[in-house]
From TrEMBL:
Record bears the keyword ATP-binding: yes
Organism listed in the record: Modestobacter italicus (strain DSM 44449 / CECT 9708 / BC 501)
Enzyme class, spelled out: hydrolase
SUPFAM superfamilies according to UniProt: P-loop containing nucleoside triphosphate hydrolases
Domain ABC transporter residues, every copy: 14-256
Superkingdom of origin: Bacteria
InterPro entries: AAA+_ATPase (IPR003593), ABC_transp_ATP-bind (IPR050319), ABC_transporter-like_ATP-bd (IPR003439), ABC_transporter-like_CS (IPR017871), Oligopep_ABC_C (IPR013563), P-loop_NTPase (IPR027417)
Keywords tagged on the record: ATP-binding, Hydrolase, Nucleotide-binding, Transport
Listed name of the protein: Oligopeptide transport protein (ABC superfamily, ATP-binding protein)
Its EC number(s): 3.6.3.-
Gene that produces this protein: oppF
One BP annotation, GO: peptide transport
Family statement: Belongs to the ABC transporter superfamily.
Gene Ontology MF, one: ATP binding
Lineage: Bacteria, Bacillati, Actinomycetota, Actinomycetes, Geodermatophilales
Length: 338
C-alpha cells in the first residue's frame, strides 16, 4: 500500500506515479529512485529535500525527460509521456524546464546572452533572425537590462547569470520549472534575490515549481508541500508543516541539523548523533533503509526486528492533515491524534 499522491492531483500539471529510475544496463545497472510518486499543480511549489546522494538530481532528470524511468509513469496534464508520439512528446517536454544548479557551466561562454536566448526560443532556427523585442522582454522579466543581450556570460555576476538561466527557461513559456539547488553556487547576499524572483515569477505566470534543495530553511521559505527522499525512496510527504513536526526520524534529523539563528539551539538538547554515511543508494540496507542510522534504533516486536526485516510503506498518518510517512514507528507530536 502506498500513500495517495501529494497535492491536488486532479489539477496537477506534472505527476510521477510509482517511478523507479537509475543508470547503466544489465549487470552494471544501478537503481537510484524507487517507487516515487508526487504531484505539483499550477501556482504551487513542491520541495524535494534530502542529503547528497538521496536521488534529488536523478528525479529532476526524470521530470525534464533527460532520464527515462525504469518503471512507473510520468504524466504531463494527465497524459502519460511514454504513450505520446514523438512530436507530441517534444512539445510537451518544452512545458517542463530545468533551472540548473551551476549558472557558470550552464551557459556557453562563447555565446552572447541574446544568442543563447534566441536558441532557446527557436531551437534549430536561424540565429540571424533574432527576435530582439522578445529577448529584451525576457531579460526585463528577470530584472536585467535589454543591452545584456550583447554581452558574454563572463561579464555577469553569479546572481545575474542565474537570472539569465531563468530567462532561458522562460523562453518557451513553460508550465513547470524544475529548480535544482539554484542558490547553492551563489553568495548568500544574492540568494534571497534569486529566490524572491522565482516566487514573483510563479505568482505572475501561475507556474508549477519543483524546488530541489538540501537546505530546509530555504525549503520552509519557498515551498507549499515537501517530499523527503532518502536513498532514492520517499520517507515522508505532505504540507510544509511536516518540517515543523516531522513524523519520520530522518526528517527529524534533517530538521535538527538546521542552525537556529535565535540561539535557542544552544539551550536545547543537542541533536542525536547518528552514523554519518547514508549508504549506497544503489544497494540500500534491507528493511527500512534508514535503520542503520536511526536514533530510535531497530525495534523488536514479538521477537522480530521489524525495522531490519520489513521495508515500511509510505502510508497516510491519522490526524496529520494528509501527511504520509514510511516508518514502522512514526514520531508522535503534541496535538497529533496518534
Amino acid at each position: 500500500m502506498t500513500a495517495q499522491l501529494t497535492g491536488p492531483t486532479t489539477a496537477a500539471v506534472l505527476r510521477v506515479d510509482q517511478v523507479s529510475a537509475g543508470y547503466g544496463s544489465g549487470s552494471r545497472s544501478a537503481r537510484v529512485l524507487r517507487d516515487v510518486s508526487l504531484a505539483v499543480a499550477p501556482g504551487r511549489t513542491m520541495g524535494i529535500v534530502g542529503e547528497s546522494g538521496s536521488g534529488k538530481s536523478t528525479l529532476a532528470k526524470v521530470l525534464v525527460g533527460e532520464l527515462a524511468p525504469l518503471s512507473g509513469r510520468v504524466l504531463l496534464a494527465d497524459q502519460d509521456t511514454a504513450r505520446m508520439a514523438r512530436g507530441q512528446l517534444r512539445a510537451a517536454r518544452r512545458s517542463v524546464q530545468l533551472v540548473p544548479q551551476d549558472p557558470y557551466s550552464s551557459l556557453n561562454p562563447r555565446m552572447t546572452v541574446g544568442r543563447a536566448l534566441a536558441e532557446a526560443i527557436d531551437p534549430g532556427g536561424s540565429l540571424r533572425r533574432i527576435d530582439r523585442a522578445r529577448i529584451t522582454e525576457l531579460l526585463e522579466t528577470v530584472a536585467l537590462e535589454g543591452d545584456a543581450a550583447d554581452r558574454l556570460p563572463h561579464e555577469f555576476s553569479g546572481g545575474q547569470r542565474q537570472r539569465i538561466v531563468i530567462a532561458r527557461a522562460l523562453a518557451v513559456q513553460p508550465q513547470v520549472l524544475i529548480a535544482d539547488e539554484v542558490t547553492s553556487a551563489l553568495d548568500s547576499s544574492v540568494q534571497a534575490e534569486v529566490l524572491n524572483l522565482l516566487l514573483s515569477l510563479q505568482r505572475e505566470k501561475d507556474l508549477a515549481l519543483v524546488f530541489i534543495t538540501h537546505d530546509l530553511s530555504i525549503a520552509r521559505y519557498m515551498c507549499d508541500e515537501i517530499s523527503v527522499l532518502y536513498l532514492g525512496s520517499l520517507v515522508e510527504q505532505g504540507d510544509i508543516g511536516l518540517l515543523h513536526a516531522p513524523a519520520h526520524p530522518y526528517t527529524d534529523l534533517l530538521q535538527a541539523s538546521v542552525p537556529d539563528p535565535s540561539g535557542a539551539m544552544f539551550t536545547n538538547e543537542p541533536p542525536p548523533v547518528v552514523a554519518a554515511d547514508p549508504g549506497d543508494p544503489a544497494d540500500p540496507p534491507a528493511g527500512c533503509a534508514f535503520h542503520p542510522r536511526c536514533p530510535q534504533g531497530p525495534r523488536v516486536v514479538e521477537g522480530r526486528s521489524v525495522c531490519i526485516e520489513k521495508a515500511p510503506p509510505l502510508v497516510p498518518l491519522t490526524g496529520r492533515g494528509g501527511r504520509a510517512a514510511a516508518c514502522h514507528f512514526p514520531l508522535v507530536r503534541a496535538g497529533s491524534s496518534e
